[in-house]
Amino acid sequence: MQESIQDRLDPSDPSVLSDPAGPSAPSVLPDAGIGLRKLVLHQEVVLTEAGEAPARPARRASVAAVIRNPWAGSGPGTDLTAEQLRIAPALAKLLTDRLVGTLGGVDAVEAFGKAAVVGTAGEIEHAGALIHTPYFGNLVREYLRGESIICFADTRAEAGETLIVPLWHKTHAATRSHYQTFGARVPDAPRADELVVIAAASTGPRPHPRIGDRLTDPVVTTETLEALPS
Amino acid sequence: MNVRKIVTLVEEIRSEGGRPVSPPARVAVVAAVIENPWAGEGFVEDLGPGIEATASDVGALLAPEVLDALQAPAEAYGKAAIVGLDGEVEHGSALIHTLKFGDHFRKAANATTLLPAVEKRGPAGVVFDIPLKHITDATIRSHHQTTEVRIADAPHPNEIVIALAAAAQGRPQQRLAPLSTEQ
Q1: What ipTM is given for this predicted complex?
Q2: Matching InterPro entries, A to Z (chain B) (predicted)?
Q3: N or C: which end of chain A has fewer CB within 10 A?
Q4: CA dihedral defined by A50, A47, B76, A94, rounded to 10 degrees?
Q5: The CATH number of A2-226 is which of 3.60.10.10, 3.40.190.10, 3.40.50.150, 3.30.1330.110?
Q6: Which residues of chain B are within 8 Å of residue A32 when distances are taken between CB atoms?
């Protein structure tokens, strides 16, 4: 057991769901000015997988923010710009601050992803408005010092839905060892008029990556496969 | 003790019932997914040696982790043992219903009461609720609360999920009359 524990990051580091201002900083509005109901952190550290310790142990985390959907019940003619400009940058900062604090610093983050779940009184377009534009994506990329496009998942669902958030390498998206997913779930959200917005990250690859990479792949086409003995 | 992974969940509630919660209410859970010490051994009459080998270690692992995750003194706490489908609920109970397990948490949190618990058997991804009560007086009604946990890929049939939960306060908008008002 002791050996496995040493593989983990120092728990005295800026730790789980740490708010740089402290958990009860009086200057912070409880709802962060964006209708925030709660934040949920989920972190996993794999010590052994298939009976063996990973050569590079990774820490994976997601942070989910449950907010009021500012467009719930409005029609498809509604212009989403103003609220998007107001809310998305605040979410990008809030979620990445928590991720970086949890995972031991921005340099520890190697892979990232994003996601949103919209409640049933909203449109999937509302989820998109908060995660698919530069007001969220560019800022998350900047805060996490990435270069890749950020992969994503989104859905409309009842509270308690598990969303599988895809992650890939933050600077080299085609790095196959870093293709991985992380489940995010808030038991009591989203309510019909809420949105759950999620940022997720990993400090390393899958536990035992061994399916090669683009650099090692042979040429594979229908023609080359036909040449193989059947 | 063979640990496959450690899972941490932290909820920070900013509003409840449409009103702000300030300071935010925090609840943390840390779970260890471990191999069932009695996996594959059939019916083991004497669970003592397995308890001796595992219960204290897993309690020592989880107690500091859950307090780190909470980032505040714990006022309420609870525990869980969720046994994979090939084990007995008794195996989970064996690991958490011993002072060897709970004393690590009680000592770290300056607590005195027994930890309320959930024990059940289920497949990977089973949802379970951990009950929490006040750390020094289990009759303090404001601190009775529950937190929900799900680990998508645990427990495997030969595993047990052992978890500790801690809350930095009572329920977010607690406003029930204390027990003493009804006595």
Answers
A1: 0.94
A2: AA_synth_put (IPR009569), BB2672 (IPR035936)
A3: C
A4: -110
A5: 3.30.1330.110
A6: 14
